[in-house]
Amino acid sequence: MTEEREYLFDRPNNIKRVLLGLYAACAITLVLDLVVHRHTEHPWEGLLGFYPAYGFIGCVILVVVAKWMRRFIIRPEDYYSQKDLPAHPQPAEEDKQP
Amino acid sequence: MSALPPFLLFYLAAIAVFVTRGRTQQALMVATPIVGAINLWGIPQDASVTITFMGMALEPLRLDALSRLFGWLFHIAALIGVVYALHVKDRVQQVSALLYMGSALGAIFAGDLLTFFLFWEAMAITSVFLVWARRTPEAYSAGVRYLVIQVISGLLLLVGIMLHWRATGSLSFEYIGTGAGYGWLILVALGLKAAFPLLHSWLVDAYPESTPTGTVFLSAFTTKVAIYALARGFPGTELLVYVGATMACFPIFFAVVENDLRRVLAYSLVNQLGFMVVGIGIGTQLAINGAVAHAFTDVIFKGLLFMSMGAVLTMTGRINGSELGGLYKTMPKTTVLCIIGAASISAFPLFSGFVSKSMIMSAALKENYHTVWLALLFASAGVFHHAGIKIPYFAFFAHDSGIRAADPPGNMLLAMTIAACLCIGIGLFPGLLYGALPFDVAYTPYDVTHVLTQLQLLLFSALAFVWLNKRGIYPPELNAVHLDVDWTYRRFIPGLARPLINGIAAANHSVRTAMLGGLERGLELLRSTYSSRGLLSRDVGPSTMVIWVTTLLAVYLFLSFV
Q: Which residues of B, range 205-264, sit inside 8 Å of A by Cβ?
């Protein structure tokens, strides 16, 4: 296909709109925190913006730690397939076909 | 009693499917879970069938609120899975899937531990064919490892059950607890299949190697039977709270860096099981209800996610995040259905995960497990991050991979639609699910606090994803293997054993050489003594003989005088 039709997110503006929607939703829930009275059970829960902060910081820590962890556990794609026991009794499908 | 035991129906259907073909076969496959559900409807509450076998009181069928709910769940999962796999013309998969589902039903309706064990083993043996059915070398060796670990679980269970029987004289499957040694054996056996930390690697190893349709079946049954058994045998075991919290947290780190999207889902399966295990460990009525409800919703939304990724794999032949992207353009229906599954697993309000997960969170707070609650909150944000955003984002959006695959066949879309409707239906009308839970506990998921705080948590997690992506911190999808615990038995232990094996080989060689040398020398001696001039093959005349006989007689005569 040489002349492909344009899809929804091929326009940068649409991506921008989605992101703006997300920012707006974040802002609204943050403002609602001030307005709505929440019943709390955990001492930290009552802090203003506890959940937003926990979600944001939690995810950043998650990704940073996962990236750091990857340095130790990453191996080449064929790490296991080089030599894995037990061997397949038959050659793979691709090998059989002429 | 007029009703059939639920497992028998599936076993009979497996035989029928084995000998039929074409439309008849498809009709049989679809009819089995529907007839099974009608059959289950007809079995009265608290029904029980008991038999005595070699002096043991067995109860092959027992229905109570807990097992009935899992029964409904398994019939729903069976129907969805069968519809999803309707286009598959592989008899191995069709028959093993039916036998596998029947075994899972047999296990949850087993009233005694021996019957439970038999179905526990049957599940292992029937499900491994769903892995092998992929017919690749990777699937073959993953299947072998899967089977070995499942059988180890079965052996631990059997030994635990035998010790339990000796200690108590009863085989009845009731509360077991960790008061005695056998309790620990049974707990580890169940923990292997429930993917406890460090025991989880079989799941993330084997499930992503199965066929696109096989993984949908696999993800629904084995682990949920283990959760059912934990809820029956070990409610309120405090250790499980911490085990579950660990399970909920550690897989999300692996999920963030993993490239195979079905393996990402396998990690998130372990993470969701963690929530259920926490609920069982807390052990209050609310917590057990939460665990069971979460098992119910998880089977459906995790099934939906596995189905959407199975559709991607079927249509594009690829499943690595690094090779996919931009599929929303030509697979819009799959995209929407996947997002519904993603919203459900992330526990967005109005979706099924929200109404079940919040029960466990509330129970953790009520029982003052504050650290565990924080861990679960972190895990909730992490689930959204890796399953809720990463899966749809890398498959359907992200960079355009140029793949222009169409939406999958109608039966796959139908199965995904059924699952998606259930996800939204349970989210909108949680009363339907709550009414079937084992304990009668009033719980309202939709209050302002819950909805607002959950939305805040999720929206700001999404914000973190956007921010990390924009800053280029988010780890790229790489074509690579990421090591997990299975490395210990695939590389480390074989590596340790190598010197031992080499030592044995060397000793074997030297012993053989020495023996062969000895044999050689013996042969040489015989050869020389029997050669033409050898001691034993010389020509000897009669006179020599006479001399020797005379000598012998002389000696004899002499001895008789002594």
A: 252-254, 256-257
